[in-house]
Write a structure and sequence with these properties.
mainly alpha, MetI-like fold, 11 helices
C-alpha cells in the first residue's frame, strides 16, 4: 500500500512540476486526436444526414456497414493501415508510417463509424417538419440541413464526444502506425503501456489521471449542455 501511495504522490509531482517529457506526451496525444476529430466530423455528419433523410439504393446496407464497423478493434484498423503504409504497401512511397499523420489517419478511421452511426440515430429522431419548413421557405439544402442539425445538436455533440473519447483512449492503432517514438509519436496510451511494462508506475498513473480528468470534463460538459437544453425547452 505504501508503494502505491508513493507512486501516486510521484505521479502528481510529475504533473504539477511540468515534467517536459510527460507534457510532451500529453500535447502529442491531444494534438493528434483533436486534428483527427476535426477532420472526420464534417464529412461523417454529412453522411449521417444523408442516411437519415435521403432515399437512395443501398441506404440500409450502408447503415448496416457503419454499425458493423463500430465493433472493429483498433488493432485491426492499425494492422490494415500498417500494411497499406508499409514500404511494400500501396501507399508506402508516401513515407507516412511511424508519423503523426499516420496516427491521425488511423484515428479518423476509428472515429468515423461512431460519428456516422450516432449522428444517424440523432438525425433520424429529429422532427421532419424542421427540414420541410426550411425547404418550403426557400432555404437552400445546406441551410436546411444545418437547421435540422441545430435541432439535434445535443445528440450530435454526444457523438463527437464519444468519438473523441474512443480515439484518445485507444492504443492498438497508434502503437502500430505511430511506433511509440519519444517526443514524436508517443501518446498517452502508448506511454502508459510502455511505462507499466517497465515498472515505472508513477508516470503511467500520471497519464492515467489525465485521461480520467478528460473523461470527467467531457461528461460534465455533456451534462451541462443537456441541462441547458432542457431549461430552454
Amino acid at each position: 500500500m505504501e508503494h502505491v501511495n508513493q507512486a501516486i504522490v510521484q505521479a502528481l509531482t510529475l504533473l504539477f512540476s511540468g515534467d517536459p517529457e510527460l507534457w510532451t506526451i500529453i500535447r502529442i496525444s491531444f494534438g493528434v486526436s483533436l486534428q483527427a476529430i476535426l477532420y472526420a466530423t464534417p464529412l461523417a455528419l454529412l453522411i449521417a444526414f444523408l442516411l437519415a433523410h435521403g432515399r437512395f439504393p443501398g441506404q440500409q446496407t450502408l447503415i448496416t456497414i457503419f454499425h458493423t464497423l463500430l465493433a472493429v478493434p483498433a488493432v485491426v484498423v492499425g494492422l490494415t493501415l500498417y500494411i497499406v503504409l508499409s514500404h511494400t504497401g500501396p501507399l508506402g512511397s508516401l513515407d507516412l508510417l511511424f508519423t503523426q499523420t499516420a496516427m491521425i489517419v488511423g484515428q479518423v478511421l476509428l472515429s468515423f463509424p461512431i460519428l456516422v452511426a450516432m449522428g444517424h440515430s440523432a438525425l433520424s429522431a429529429s422532427d421532419t417538419r424542421a427540414w420541410e419548413t426550411a425547404r418550403s421557405l426557400g432555404a437552400p439544402p445546406w441551410r436546411s440541413m444545418l437547421t435540422v442539425m441545430y435541432e439535434v445538436r445535443f445528440g450530435l455533440f454526444a457523438a463527437v464526444i464519444a468519438a473523441f473519447g474512443r480515439i484518445i483512449a485507444e492504443v492498438g492503432c497508434s502503437l502500430m502506425v505511430g511506433g511509440n517514438i519519444l517526443n514524436f509519436t508517443r501518446n498517452i496510451t502508448t506511454a502508459i503501456a510502455m511505462e507499466t511494462t517497465k515498472g515505472e508506475f508513477a508516470r503511467g498513473i500520471a497519464l492515467g489521471i489525465v485521461l480520467l480528468v478528460l473523461a470527467l470534463l467531457l461528461n460534465f460538459t455533456l451534462t451541462a449542455m443537456r441541462t441547458r437544453l432542457d431549461w430552454v425547452r
